Amino acid sequence: AVLNVIWQMLASQRYEADDPVMRKFAAILNENVDIVQGPIFLLDVMPWLDKVTPKFLKNMVTKDDKMIDNRDAFFTMFRALMEEHKKTLDPECPRDLVDYYLIEMEANKNDSESIFTQDEDGLLNLLGTMRDFFAAGSETTSTTLRWMILYMANRPQIQERAQQVLDEVVPKDRLPSLDDRPQLAYIDALIYDVLRLSSLPPTGIPHCASATVH
């Protein structure tokens, strides 16, 4: 469900849970999560290891090569999706983030200072942005929801209060929206408390000082 929300935002696409594309995509994401929780974090906290460790040993211990393979698999899928969007793009009626990005790339094609250029760097920025949406938004959201379910199951009185607040603010004939948020301070506080109490990323967040996406 979380992946479909991100796909809808990025590319106006949704998949069934048993769709082969979605299953493969989810499997790659899960594999990356498992790798990030392993020894590869050492390359982030001690970057000098990347320079002194033989490549075969680094790949064997950290699975860095598998992360690169998975990145390339994502980019292959994203490139195909971008080409499909180019064929059906209506600048007067953009459908999603990819459409808006393509429109900006066309508008800034002669601006060498823009990040929306139509060369390979501009394309990699788009591909990297799409990858970041999934990398940062899928597992973290799913894990937060699982923690929320656990805490609500253990604290039924809090769950009942949350439901009462929602019923008081949100009509029965629609779902909550961001417009309701000012009237849902209790729900806001509840989510923040789940984030405070739970354990989301088991290690530090990987980072880099370079603007490049590859």
UniProtKB/TrEMBL annotation:
Keyword Nucleotide-binding: no
Top-level taxon: Eukaryota
Keywords tagged on the record: Iron, Metal-binding, Monooxygenase, Oxidoreductase
Keyword Cytoplasm: no
GO molecular-function terms, A-Z: heme binding; iron ion binding; monooxygenase activity; oxidoreductase activity, acting on paired donors, with incorporation or reduction of molecular oxygen
Pfam families xrefs: p450 (PF00067)
Signal peptide start-end: none
Transmembrane intervals: none
PANTHER family the record matches: CYTOCHROME P450 508A4-RELATED
Family: Belongs to the cytochrome P450 family.
Protein name: Cytochrome P450 2L1-like
Organism of this sequence: Hirondellea gigas
